[in-house]
Each structure stands twice: as structure tokens, then as C-alpha cells.
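Lab channel / #folding
Pinned by the channel admin:
"Please post every new chain as: sequence first, then the C-alpha cells as a reply. Keep commentary short and put observations after the output so the thread stays searchable."

First post following the new format, from NK:
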Amino acid sequence: MAGAYFTGCAVWAFKDWVGSFYPKGSKAGDFLRLYGDRMTAVEGNTTFYSMPDAKTVDRWATTMPPGFRFCPKLPRAFSHQGKLMPFVDEAHRFLQTLMPLGDRLGPLFIQLPPTYSPEQLADLRDFLTRWPRQTHPIAVEVRHLDWFAEPHSTRLNQMLSSLGVGRVLLDTRPVYDCIDTLDDDPQIGSERKKPRVPLQPEVTAPFTIVRYISHPNLAYNQTYFDEWVPRLRQWLEAGTDIYFFAHCPQEAKSPTVAREVYHRLQQAGVALPPLLWDVAEQQKAEEDNSSAQLSLFG
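Reply from TO:
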């Protein structure tokens, strides 16, 4: 059975999407509903900075459409304080606050800081062992460069595989290779630059999370798209569920990147339904055409 493909961005509340990704005149209170009408998943980066209250989670649950997936990042209050085990109970309480999302809750992921090295492997293993992985899948994103070198990379992948934990695949090549080849840094001015880490596309669980950091110039990404599309297709054919999130230093362009990869997968023969964003645009065009015809005969 083929895997499922979910795609989206890191956030939904980006006001500069109004007039492009969102219709003209859209209000902030409608952003989540509009986002769910166009994409199938969101990282929910908001949870990294603060824990949502029950009222907020209930609103998310009632606003997100069926089939949508929310993939929250564990709060940095747990992940960026040194060892993880002292916060395992708090992490479980965080998970409980998300229970109203029901089947809209996708895999969670924990983003480890650059200071969290392979020396903490036992701490990471103990934390993940305590996590209810069978009912609530989780993935790990590492940033300390030693995790990408041997023997640590193999040890990490083996540990994650044995626990059924995903490894977040962060691809920052598009925003760093261009510095070397074009003397072009698209992250200039960014408050939070993404780290320059190697891409190691290993699947360690029945699902994977891809965080693709796009160059703002869509054409510059073509080489990377040419790599990713066959890889994603192969994983889907093997039954792996994929959560593909598009980022861009110019956030206004992130949805277009997600759509481009989606279209390329369709062109490569992957049996995906029409992208919701495309459906919404087609419906809007038909409504505008009907209104125009009525005005001619009104």
C-alpha cells in the first residue's frame, strides 16, 4: 500500500499571503481555515515558542478540516535546556493538551539545539523510550554536526529505527550552496537562520518529515527538486507516509514551493489527488466567470 503525502508550510498566520495564497481581504481570524482549504499539513511552529491553552487547541480542532495533519514541534522549554529526561513529564503533559486534535494530530517532532551532541545519546534514547510512540509518532531533528559523522550517524539511525522514531530531514542546501556558487545569501536579514548541516536522507520509521529550505528564486531549486521527487516517489511506493514542509527566507514564497513539488510528484506518476489550493483557485475562477456573465445579462 502506498504511503500518504502531506504538504504545507511552517505557519498559517502570515499576513503577506493575503492576495496571493489567501484571497484579497482575508482577515487574520480566517487564516487557519483558509490554510486548511489549501494545504494538508502544517508544522505548527507556534508550539516551539509557547504551549497552547485548551481553548486554542479546541479552536484548532474545530477549524482544521478532516484529513488535515498538525505536526507540532515540542516546546523549546523542554528541548533547549540541556538534557531531555528532566522534562519528560512536562513533555507528556504537552502531548495531553493536544489530544482534542484527535486524528488531526500528526507526528510531533523535537528539534535539538546545536549544543546537544552525541554525548547525550543515552539521554535521547531514554526520553524517546518513555514517549508513547505507538499511539503518537515522534521524529527527531539533530543539529550538532557530530551527529552527521560516523560512527554517530549510524548509531543514531539504528537507535531511531529500533524505536520506530522518525528522523527529520532538514535540507538547507538551496540557501547555502548559492553562497558558494553565486555569492548570493538569501538569508541576509533573517532573524533565525537555518543551520548548515549535511543532508542524510534516511528513513527510520513508517513516516518521515522533510523540511525543505527553499531558495527564493524558484528556478534555483530545480536541481534539488530533481533529486527529491524520485526519492519521495520511491518512499511513497514503499509505504512511507511523507510530511513535506516548504520553508523560504522570503516566507511569502513558501506555499509556491510546496505546490511545485506536489505538481512534480503528480507529473512523475504519483497518484495524488488535486492539491486543495488548486481546487480553491479553480472554484474562485469559476465563481468570477459566473459573476462576469451575470453582469453582462443583468
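NK: Residues 115 and 144 are 6 Å apart (CA to CA).
TO: also worth noting, The chain has one domain: 5-297.
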